[in-house]
Each structure stands twice: as C-alpha cells, then as structure tokens.
Amino acid sequence: MDCLRDWPEPVVPVQSLSESGAAVIPDRYVKPQSERPSLDSTADKNILGIPIVDLGGLAEGTAECRATMRAISDACQEWGFFQVVNHGVSRELMERIRDVWRGFFQLPTEAKKAYANTPTTYEGYGSRVGVQKGAILDWGDYYYLQYLPQSARNYDKWPILPISIRDTIEEYGREMARLCVILMKVMSVSLGLDANFLQKAIGGDDVGAALRANYYPKCPQPDLTLGLSAHSDPGVMTVLLADDQVKGLQVRKGGEWITVQPLPHAFIINVGDQIQVLSNATYKSVEHRVVANASSDRLSLAFFYYPKFDLPLGPARELVSPDRPPLYQPMTYNEYRLYIRKNGPKGKTQVESLKAM
C-alpha cells in the first residue's frame, strides 16, 4: 500500500530529544488528558501483581505438572499476563542480550540511522508506529527485526555493532521460540485441546516471530506522555524481557492500571489477540502500556510470536457450541496487522472489530 511506503513526516529519535536537555517535551508527544498516566496513583502501590508461574513444575510429577498448567490457564483467563521463572533460558544469555542492545542504543545517532526503518516492514531502527500525519507520538525508540520464518530474515537489517550482537540475537531467538512452543502446548491442553492444536492452527513449523528492542529515554515531563500507548498485542503471544531495574510496564485490570514488578531473570508472557480469537475468548489479550520515567532510561526486549501470514484464523471448532457460538470472524494475520501498522497502538479496538455480528 502506498501509505505504508514512508513516514508522513521526518522521524526524530526520542533519544536525541532526551539528550538535548530540554525541560519541556514537544507538543507532538503530549497525550490527551484522558490518556495521561497518573504517576502518583494507586497503580504503583497496588500489592496485587500479575501471577508468577514456576515452569519447573512441568518437568515434575503429574500433580505438579497439572498445578502449573492450571496456574497458566487461570492467568490467561483472569489477567492475560503472567511471569515465568525456571524457564530454562540461561541468565548469562539474558544479561548478554540486554548488554548488546544497550550498546546499540548508545552508538552515535548516525550509526543507528543507517538502519532507519520504513512502515513497509518496520524492520530496523525507528521511533514511531502508525502513518497518520500529525499523530501524537510515544516517548520511545525501538529496533524491530524479523526472526521467523528463517526465509523472511533480512540480514541487511540486522545491526553489526556491537560486535557480538548478531550471534546473540540468533541464540536468543532460538531460546524464545523454544519457550513459545512449550507455552503453546500448555495453553492447548488447558483449553481441552490436543497438545499440538494451537501450534498447528497457527502454521506448525511455518510460524512467524520478531524481536523488538524498546529503548525509553529519560523524559522531563513523564506525566504528559507515554513510552508506549495502550494496546493489546496483535499476534499469538509475547515474551518480554523487562528492565528489572526501572519499572514502566502497566497492565489494565478491572479498570485500573497495575504497574508490573518484574522479577530478576523472569520473562513476562502475555496473551495476544490471535489466542483470544482461537480460544473464542476463553483466554483474553489485555491492554497494556508503558509509562515514561524522569530519572532513568529503560530497555526491554519483546519477542513476538505470530501465525503464518496467510492462514485465516477464527475460533477453534472444538471451542464452539450452540451455547457458545463463534465470537469472531476469520481473518489472516497479514490483514490483521495492517491495522496497527497504519494506525499505531489503539487499545483493543482491532480485535473487538472482528466480533461476529
């Protein structure tokens, strides 16, 4: 589409605005009053946290395995978010992937701009999502790259600095894909389906995956803007390695925004829109956002797991009955993701628009 060939205005890295030392953020980043965070609200003090699941239980005896699966099922129904520990990914790799991406974002601006992205594929270094001219922007930069299927990788868009970054991305991506396959099996069984049902439904070995490194620079007026606007993720699931030193992720629960307290060396898992559709809303994707910070920058790494592009996805027939008719119309992921690529993050408006009349 012509509207996705280039950005409607010149893209300014947020990091350069932050490092300029200006005490006021440009108007382009000031959110409407209704979208601004309440930084002194109860969200940060709320003792209620997203569930924590020990995946070590999956390798234990039958009772422990069932309890772990039940915990994941409950989290998918009640929260759409949970943290996992004992996930099998080495702490050394988790620290290394953070270090290489932090190193990348500390490179000179011109070195990063050599990888500048366009809205055609979003691959590369960028600072906005959506192509609406005059849109209010988020206070964050990012780097997005395709990981699966392997045939879709564009190594010209993989950075070469810091020196070990490509090998680290490759290794990290393998571990993330392995973890996603495990979680897909757990979700399938928890829904009363065959263990491989969800994986087959989204394309089997032909699925897609992408990595997005998010960099949220310090912001002089964090009460006026957001690092990332409220949205649900369009894919199947997201595995997030959050910054465990600087909080920022908030999840909507019962009309309130709950600040997530990341555990060291844990991953945060969230249900994507495609799981909500496939499960006929038994499991639900949930709105989340990122608040800005006045005193510290923040880095997080999101691994997006999504269906083969051209497969029409609708509710699983096994989860449809006269008492629970299909809630969503089938759509391919290629069609589905165009919405966010054109409009940027907009709450849950897209998945709601799929509802069968």
From TrEMBL:
Keywords: Iron, Jasmonic acid signaling pathway, Metal-binding, Oxidoreductase, Plant defense. Its cofactor is L-ascorbate; Fe(2+). Residues 206-307 form the Fe2OG dioxygenase domain. SUPFAM superfamilies: Clavaminate synthase-like (SSF51197). InterPro entries: DIOX_N (IPR026992), IPNS-like_FE2OG_OXY (IPR044861), IPNS-like_sf (IPR027443), Oxoglu/Fe-dep_dioxygenase_dom (IPR005123), Plant_2OG-oxidoreductases (IPR050295). It comes from the Eukaryota. GO terms for molecular function: jasmonic acid hydrolase; metal ion binding; oxidoreductase activity. GO terms for biological process: defense response; negative regulation of defense response to insect; regulation of defense response to fungus; regulation of jasmonic acid mediated signaling pathway. It catalyses: jasmonate + 2-oxoglutarate + O2 = (1R,2R)-12-hydroxyjasmonate + succinate + CO2. Belongs to the iron/ascorbate-dependent oxidoreductase family. This is Flavonol synthase/flavanone 3-hydroxylase-like. It comes from Cocos nucifera.
